[in-house]
Amino acid sequence: ENILIKGGTVVNADRAFKADVVVKGGLIEAVGPGLKAPKGAKVVDATGKYVMPGGIDPHTHLEFPFMGQVSNETFLSGERAALAGGTTFHIDFALQWEGSLKKGLAEWKRKAQRAISDYGFHMAINKWTSETAAEMAEMVREGINSFKFFMAYKGALMVSDELFLDGLLACKKLGALPMVHGENGDAIALAQKLTIEKGITGPEGHSISRPSYLEGEATGRAVKLARLLNVPLYVVHVMSKDAIEAIEEGHRAGQRLWGEAVAGAISLTDEPCWDPDFKIAAAHVISPPLRSREHQTAVKAALAGGSLQLIGTDHCGWNTTQKAVGRHDFRILPNGIHGIEERLHTAWEDLVNAGLITPPDFVRLTSAEAAKIFNLYPQKGVIAAGSDADIIVLDPSVTHKISVATHHSSLDMNVFEGKTVHGKVTTTISRGRLAWDGKDILLEPGSGRYVRMEPFAPHVYGGLDEQEKRWIGERFPYGPAPVKRVGDKPPRDEL
Ligand SMILES: NC(=O)NCCC(=O)O
Ligand SMILES: [Zn+2]
């Protein structure tokens, strides 16, 4: 498909400028003023609109097997929702399967057979076997450059500090990025038991038993363990002031450290978890939990100020019947909320329209930074000649209300129900294909593509070797050489 996008304002992470964009053969062919339409090209009129790189969602769980069920949102329905909301690439979390990473990857490739957009995988590790380090290397050869470790979910996905440390070292050797879910799983398991014993069994018990300081504690621990080994670290779904402070402390210590906010934490609070209607309360259960307005304000300030660097969703879509399993015990209520379709619209409303960030900041937070971290830049995350033609057109003058009645997700609830947003994605182009025309999704099931992500992303690992060669003392306790003391005999090989 050849496409000319005419008359818009192109927004990249560094600047916004008036330009046309020509798309040919799945790539952006040219960006500049007064471009001519190639033969047979569709013309998209972007006058008065923003032309931006498609959204990259670094955190999704489609068809996620978790807490005894499989989340309802599939690759097909989830990507339809994503494209309608302007997200053209997402990274889904494959899980180690029966102890094997290879089996996990095969299982997630099977799930993605009906995909329609570009996607990639992270791999989560929860067991360390004699095969794990070798399998991690094999995953990197397969195009996975990030591994996730859960400090929460005791008895299921939770890892010990020992496993996490092994994982950090293995990641560093491979040039892969470790990711961490920071919540203290042991303490939460006990707090859950005590909450149930008090007679609190509903969704509010989920929030009560997961206080923000347990998120802060685990995030701080993860940050310090990464500091000990000098390994870059990515903290997923930061929900609290406490976790932000732990990340800021790591930044002050000079660590390579990224913090991800999720759409829900920017636009929602935990108040609905106390709603008398179980359906509404249950729909808002996610881990770490949504929090009070004070924490929401801190998350937005951290995105505006630079302590958090990107926005994902943690999209994990459960239907009300699936959530209903936890009606009398929040410990078995499937955790997770959605956002893959809403993320760009809600972030535009609550960050750009609210005057907290500029349109280029928006592109950095929703697309460019993720592309850099996961080593896809400038293939993705920028409107430039030679880049993948993953493009959105956003009309800032269109107002709409988010609703289950109009969303494209397969879910029967919407946690953003009734929210009015100013600005709408009217066109989405996925790898040069017109994917969304403001009314319909135009792509065929199975036309999606797995995208490899190579290790040693310059944005993450660039210069680390040189840094370590030069470090002495506290920040690099293993070198550069032991102190030679008076009276010590030289080692044998020096005699
Ligand atoms: N976040 C959540 O509640 N569900 C998905 C699993 C995870 O990311 O922790
Ligand atoms: Zn997640």
Q: What report would you give on this structure?
A:
The protein is of the alpha/beta class and 495 residues long. The protein has one domain (51-450): Metal-dependent hydrolases (TIM Barrel, Alpha-Beta Barrel). It has helices at 75-84, 101-111, 132-141, 161-174, 185-197, 204-208, 212-229, 241-252, 263-267, 278-283, 293-305, 320-323, 343-352, 359-373, 458-461, 464-470; strands at residues 3-11, 16-24, 27-32, 42-45, 50-53, 55-60, 65-66, 69-70, 87-95, 118-124, 146-150, 177-181, 233-235, 257-262, 310-312, 391-401, 420-430, 433-436, 449-450. Strands 6, 9, 10, 11, 12, 13, 14, 15 and 19 form a 9-stranded parallel beta sheet that branches. Strands 1, 2, 3, 4, 5, 16, 17 and 18 form an 8-stranded mixed beta sheet that branches. It has a two-stranded antiparallel sheet with strand order 7-8. Helix 7 (212-229) packs parallel to helix 8 (241-252). The N and C termini lie far apart (73 Å). The protein binds N-(aminocarbonyl)-beta-alanine and zinc ion. N-(aminocarbonyl)-beta-alanine is lined by residues 61, 181, 286-287, 314, 316, 335-336. It catalyses: 5,6-dihydrouracil + H2O = 3-(carbamoylamino)propanoate + H(+). Belongs to the metallo-dependent hydrolases superfamily. Hydantoinase/dihydropyrimidinase family.
